[in-house]
Specification:
This protein is α+β, with helices and mostly antiparallel strands and 299 residues long. 59% of the residues lie in helices and 18% in strands. It contains five helices and eight strands. Strands 1, 2, 3, 4, 5, 6, 7 and 8 form an eight-stranded antiparallel β-sheet that branches. A hairpin with a 2-residue loop joins strand 4 and strand 5. Helix 4 runs antiparallel to helix 5. This is Homer protein homolog 1 isoform X4.
Length: 299
């Protein structure tokens, strides 16, 4: 076979909810192997993951794709061919960083492969308009294989007269439209993540308040029981049983305190994710301005 694995890791796999475009839907019950593959026959790179015999990821890397770290252990990328957004949850920040480095490396390799393919087509093409139209419809580039190559000019027909300048303008406009669609999808994903993190933070804050109230009630009850235990130890011959009951109560209190501590750490993590989402929001605003500038320039 021409396709060989070149890098593998393990992660929990998610896909964006196709209905809400906001919530993540897990596609694996546990961490599975996620691998980069290289197809030497077609000169393309793919991300593939199997859960048993079911392919839960089959994504071809194109130069227009971007892998985004949304937290210390979570990253995502949009695949327009599959019309979805994939998310990966890693066991450590190191594994996430390594996967992101490989994504950037293979994305650059895909870009170089596309440029080489275009150079070959330019060398073999003729100056005629029919030949130029053939280049636009050629399926040999990695993006055409992936199904994400939007750089096509529907205005060019076989019967049109050779006019290089209008064709070039149409290509520029199509290229700008493809970039705009890609970044619009990225911005929509960022908005969804930001809304999700905000809702999760509000829910966690409400839960923590409730847990604190419960813990205060438990502590008050524990104090009352401590006093009762002391009285029983003085007047009862079952001191050992009372001591055992007291120990269990102390363990219960300790467990509740540990639970509260874990929830407080979770809140801190969610706050950090909100900060990250705000940074992405700022990047989105910057990208929107760049897109508007590029559209004005291309028009």
């Amino acid at each position: 076979m021409g396709e060989q694995p070149i890098f593998s890791t393990r992660a929990h796999v998610f896909q964006i909810d196709p209905n809400t475009k906001k919530n993540w839907v897990p596609t694996s019950k546990h961490a599975v192997t996620v691998s980069y593959f290289y197809d030497s026959t077609r000169n393309v790179y793919r991300i593939i993951s199997l859960d048993g015999s079911k392919a839960i990821i089959n994504s071809t890397i194109t130069p227009n794709m971007t892998f985004t770290k949304t937290s210390q252990k979570f990253g995502q990328w949009a695949d327009s061919r599959a019309n979805t957004v994939y998310g990966l949850g890693f066991s450590s920040e190191h594994h996430l960083s390594k996967f992101a480095e490989k994504f950037q490396e293979f994305k650059e390799a895909a870009r170089l492969a596309k440029e080489k393919s275009q150079e070959k087509m330019e060398l073999t093409s003729t100056p005629s308009q029919e030949s130029a139209g053939g280049d636009l419809q050629s399926p040999l580039t990695p993006e055409s294989i992936n199904g994400t190559d939007d750089e096509r000019t529907p205005d060019v027909t076989q019967n049109s007269e050779p006019r290089p300048e209008p064709t070039q303008n149409a290509l520029s406009f199509s290229h700008s439209s493809a970039i705009s669609k890609h970044w619009e999808a990225e911005l929509a994903t960022l908005k969804g993540n930001n809304a999700k993190l905000t809702a999760a933070l509000l829910e966690s804050t409400a839960n923590v308040k409730q847990w604190k109230q419960q813990l205060a009630a438990y502590q008050e009850e524990a104090e009352r029981l401590h006093k009762r235990v002391t009285e029983l130890e003085c007047v009862s011959s079952q001191a050992n049983a009372v001591h055992t009951h007291k120990t269990e109560l102390n363990q219960t209190i300790q467990e509740l305190e540990e639970t509260l501590k874990v929830k407080e750490e979770e809140i801190e993590r969610l706050k950090q994710e909100i900060d990250n989402a705000r940074e992405l929001q700022e990047q989105r605003d910057s990208l929107t301005q760049k897109l508007q500038f590029e559209e004005n320039s291309s028009l």
